[in-house]
Amino acid sequence: MRTHSSLRLLGAVAVASTIALTATACGSDAADGGSAGTSGPKEVAAALEKGGKVTVWAWEPTLKKVAEDFEQKYPKVDVELVNAGTGDKQYTALQNAIAAGSGAPDVAQVEYYALGQFTIGKSVEDLAPYGATKHATSFTSGPWNAVHQDDAIYALPMDSGPMAFFYNKKVFDKHHIKVPTTWDEYVEAARALHKADPKVFIANDTGDAGATTSLIWQAGGHPYKTDGTDVKIDFTDDGSKTYAATWQKLLDEKLLSPVNPWSDAWYKGLADGSIATLTTGAWMPANFASGVASASGDWRVAPLPQWKKGGKASAENGGSSLAVPKVAKNKELAYAFAEFATTGTGASSRVAQGAFPATRADLESKAFLDTEFPYFGGQKANQIFAESAANVGSDWQYLPYQVYANSIFNDTVGKAYVSPTKLSEGLKAWQDASVKYGKDQGFTVNK
Amino acid sequence: MTTPLTTAAATDAGAPAGPATTPGTGPSTHRAAGRTASARGRRKPPQTPLNPRPSIPLTLVTGLVLVYTLLPLAWLFINATKDQKSLLNSFGLWFAGDVNLWDNIVRTLTYDDGVFVRWLLNTLLYVVVGAGGATVLAVLGGYALAKYDFPGRKAVFAVVIGAVAVPGTALAVPTFLMFSTMGLTNTPWAVIIPSLISPFGLYLMWVFAAEAVPTELLEAARIDGSGEVRTFFTVALPLLMPGTVTVLLFSMVATWNNYFLPLIMIKDPDWYPLTLGLNAWNAQAQTAGGEPVFDLIITGSLLTIVPIVAAFLLLQRYWQSGLAAGSVKE
Amino acid sequence: MTLLSTRATAAPPPRARARLRFRKEAFVGWGFVGPFVAVFALVFLAPIGYAIYLSLFQNRLIGGTSFVGLDNYGEALTDPRFWDGLTRVGMFLLVQVPVMLGIALLVALAIDSGRLYGKTFFRVSVFLPYAVPAVVASLIWGFMYGTQFGLVGNINEALGVTLPNPLSPSLALASIGNIVTWEFVGYNMLIFYSALKVVPSSLYEAAAIDGAGEWRVVWSIKLPAIRSAVVIATIFSIIGSFQLFNEPSILQKLAPNAITSDFTPNLYTYSLSFAGQQHNYAATVAIVMGVITAIIAYAVQLRGMRKG
User: Which UniProt keyword terms apply here (chain A) (predicted)?
Assistant: First the structure.
């Protein structure tokens, strides 16, 4: 027995090595290999009729109910919803599975900022032939811009994160501070709050790539310009400079609490008022309700502070889509599920559970706009979010390798948070590191 | 007594301990000496290294290390008694008003349809098969290295140490690609197969077998016509038991605490070991719409280390004697 | 590793049967060690071979895979991010390993001296942290290091002092060293203690007759007796230090600006491989790291042995 199994193991090693080597040697072929023959809406309908299994990698909690509804509507289809990690952890797993050519899901949740990495590597399916084109006008412009390139549609928008300003009204009232409408007023408020109570900070910030790029986006900056394999990175444009100048004041005067987002200390700070505001995406209310329950009633929502007085500019923070990897086993069913989850009743069911919609119909519905949030003292917060969604700067672009760029944000820009390095120098270092990586990966950068 | 890691020059540094100091007797006589010394207490035994007297200053100084090692565990236990709210609001090293330990345990075990229990069972599976298998391989291998002279014997351990020196994180991707080709990823095998290798276990068994199994006994069995396999099971294995238990326990700890490899290999939470599950709960606080469960993470951490600590305490007697003979001496 | 001395297999068999005997031994020996070697080949050697193969190629997002020979090695050897990390773990090694092994040795000697009250309690308690998974250990210490609500914060508040943040860039490495020490001091203590326990009592009797004091016994009998245990513990600790990953990777979430993605070579290869999809270059860095680790471990073994 023992000898047998060890022989088999040795054989397996040999086989595995050979196959694996071949797989790498022609890695790009493997990624293309899946797209034999195109499918249309007819094939999708036929696949739903025939049934089968769809594996979905997603961490979005509202999909659980959607999966059940889908199975009920199409009894022959079995949806396996797997939480394969959050954000970059899942992308890593997805990349690995794509590289290996097996083990990839049929549908994967991918945040907008990360989608470029999969489209440039041609590892996600173009959904246009399956019938995705007809949804072009169903989605709000921000998310839709993020998922399509010319005629190709690489994913369907699942939710969105138009930004808003969440503030602890109790703390603001206690210290008689006016809710800032511009970022200059924000800095003033930060000083006043911290002076009134040294334990209170206007916000926590330890350097977050997503928040930084979003605020530069709102300031009208365009640090990234991508055209196919031509990439331009410039963190010295006006938008980036405006952001860096303002934020530098907050850093210099130590007006930001050095608490990491999503940590236990962060939740506590949000609850006890020592972190007085939060500038983030419209998906945040659900997290407030579950993680900061004890501060219910203290918080309110306001439009983003503006870079120019009287402006209305906004940006997106977070939000994700559902994509179908090229190596998916059952692409028709995969598309059917993605469509079900992101449009029509699927989308509405998720909105009802607290997700923030990317669909115009849901966003404009009266019921949605009139929803009162008990957590925010009965405020109709969705009106502010919807307003923000309408004012998102539309020509923003991420890098085709934003996942990597974000992973080195704290190596470079992070220095400005813990050392005398200036934010502008940090952004320059981030730019340089991103340029180098782009060049290494074969992009034409800053030429 | 030569050991694999000693040079010829070093061998005669100490007097040969001889077969008289078999694994079992050495420690017990020593312990007995200590016990009688303290039993005699005030009768002032002669102070020799063999008959020492307990010393308060030494106990206090060593006690500092004890405080250091136990403090974080005390923190863990104390905070496992708190609910989510007092977890953040009360002093870390003392109990909050009401003790919620039982409630926390129940919630940990039942949260998300009792997924913690599933992870616990997975971990048990990985430990039983992985650590059990690792022990079997290490015992067989160590025995062979100690008792048979075959070509390539010396190379085996050198290669093992050399390979262990290569950082595992970068090998993860090649391993993943290979396992994926073999269809092993996302199955228990992806965790179990790599757990089957315990380099330290092999080393320990090698040294232990060299000491504990007298070659004369094996020769005698062979002369009696016993086959090699039978000799191993009837003569060698019983002598190897203490070392085997030691290796088993060390492999158990390694498998129980395994984190990095499952992180890459297992994507289906149904196959998570406890460490990955706890990490997933930690990540849950970072998701839009996710629910932070720091209290469950802390209670879960406590529950994670209890079984392994219990195993160590229960098997103390065996593994200590095994380690004693296995450790390198001259 | 030529130092692994041949252990004589007791009485040599009669000359006439020697050849046959040798072949049989080879067969049986490999039979016993075979399963280990086979699995080892699968989970260590094959991936290493594969990694060496990968290190000769470059795979770009644009342009695909191409053979680049030893270019990746040239890049690794001049990569400041790699050398920074290596210097950092080098410093870690020079401080943390001696401290950890020193404490472990002192505790082992203290317990072995028989002069402690509650010896068994000591032995078990000091060993306990080894049973705590690195994930959990880093989680516990991470909570305690918190300057806001953690133990450090509690102390600051209670005593009205301002302790430095343990996870600031200047202290992060030391704080990680503390966690590693905490996790492994008991394990090493136990290895030393077990080695001490089998020192033949005849040696102590002889020393007592000679009227040797306790320190003299420690110095002349106990320490020489466990020297090889110290060497093997040092080697495993060196390998562990060079592979430092779990603790910094979990604490990274708490101190992203102090613990950078290239904090240790192992974190760097992880970041290259997983965030950057640069499997080829990551494999190269890993191979270089493995060679450096093996050389140093080997040198330590040589030195440790020569002193005897």
Answer: Signal, Sugar transport, Transport
Over residues A137-149, the pLDDT tens digits come to 999 888 998 999 8
Token digits of residue A124: 């996600």
Q: Which residue has the higher pLDDT, A222 or B174?
A: A222
Averaged pLDDT score across all residues of chain A: 88
Domain count along chain A: 2
Which site among B84, B171, B195, B202 would you substitute to test the C interface, given the most C Cβ atoms closer than 10 Å to its Cβ?
B171
Write down the ipTM of this complex: 0.82
Q: Under a CB-based contact definition with an 8 Å cutoff, are residues C78 and B210 in contact?
A: no
Angstrom distance (rounded) from CA A85 to CA A101: 19
**Mutation target among B115, B178, B185, B265 for the A interface, most CBs of A within 10 A:** B178
B144–C33 C-beta distance less than 8 A? yes
Q: Evaluate whether residue A23 is within a structural domain.
A: no
CATH 3.30.310.80 fits B112-215+241-326, yes or no: no
From chain B, the residues in CB contact with A84 under 8 A are 267-268
Residues A354 and A271 in one domain: no
pTM attached to this predicted model: 0.84
The radius of gyration of chain C from alpha carbons, rounded to an integer in Å, stands at: 24
Higher pLDDT, A188 or A151: A188
Full residue range of the structural domain in which residue A51 is found: 34-160+318-358
What CATH number did the domain enclosing A388 receive?
3.40.190.10
pLDDT tens digits, A363-390 = 999 999 999 999 999 999 999 999 999 9
